[in-house]
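Handout, section B. The chain below has 92 residues.
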Amino acid sequence: MSDTSAPLRQTLRDALPGAMKARDTPSRNAIRSALAAIENAEAVVVDAPGAAPGPVVASEHFAATAGGAGAAEAPRRELGEEQILRDRQRRA
């Protein structure tokens, strides 16, 4: 996580326990949704350039899947606060 995305992300994380304690379901859901959207936006496609391909497992149950601990892991992108806000405005 980069320092530039910390204020927005931290604000959302700080607001979540209060919404949960107040049993404010719409606020809780909105905060969780916003945090999940940020995390999803930082995910990368495993086939993306620079993603480490894992070894392919030859099995009758799992055809052409990555195998081994961490084989399907890929580095995540780090979005800055400006990118998060720009993406939110574009979707509105």
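Note. The longest helix spans residues 25-42. Compare this with the example in section A.
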